[in-house]
Specification:
Strand order of the largest sheet: 2-1-3-4-5
Order of helices and strands: EHHEHEHEEH
Bound molecules: 1,3,4-trihydroxy-5-OXO-cyclohexanecarboxylic acid
Helix content: 25-40%
Shape: globular
Distance between the termini: 11 Å
Largest sheet: 5 strands, parallel
Oligomer: single chain
Structural class: alpha/beta
Length: 146
């Protein structure tokens, strides 16, 4: 099983970005955490990060026939991007939505997610463990539905 893990804008600044909300561990540490989880689950994970909406849309489109699942933290684009939601719906690859923070209990605008309705898994508020939990749930979903 092969997953594409997509991280959206400003996640490259993890560790120095609002540490009270996002923690003090770096983006490199997040990537290590994701790869460790992938190894434990016996799956292959490719990880990318972009600050650009169109690059993320291109990556989702390019995932067709190459990945069994997508794990995405669209970051700020969660709350604005019809284009990313449309891309996820278009490729029909089971997708998990992930957030480090508890987006439903922050500012009101963070309660709106354009991607939730096109994702089969949603995990929020567990820090790095949001990714491991989402990967586990997505792998189980794909095993049950293939
Ligand atoms: C985030 C939450 C978003 O609201 C925010 O814009 C981010 C990160 C999270 O992982 O908690 O950049 O997706």
């Amino acid at each position: 099983m092969k997953f594409l893990v997509i991280n959206g804008p400003n996640l490259n600044l993890l560790g120095r970005r609002e540490p009270a909300i996002y923690g003090n561990k770096s983006y490199a540490a997040l990537c290590e955490h994701i790869q460790k989880t992938a190894a434990e689950l016996g799956i292959e994970a490719e990880i990318m990060q972009s600050n650009h909406e169109g690059v993320i849309v291109d990556a989702i489109q390019d995932a067709i026939d190459r990945y069994d699942g997508i794990v995405i933290n669209p970051a700020a684009y969660t709350h604005t991007s019809v284009a990313i939601a449309d891309a996820i719906a278009a490729v029909e690859i089971p997708t998990a939505e992930v957030h480090l923070s508890d987006v439903d209990n922050r500012e009101a605008f963070r309660r709106i997610s354009y991607v939730t309705h096109v994702c089969v898994v949603r995990v929020t508020g567990l820090g790095f463990d949001s990714y491991s939990e989402a990967m586990k749930q997505l792998a189980a979903y794909i095993s049950q539905n293939s």
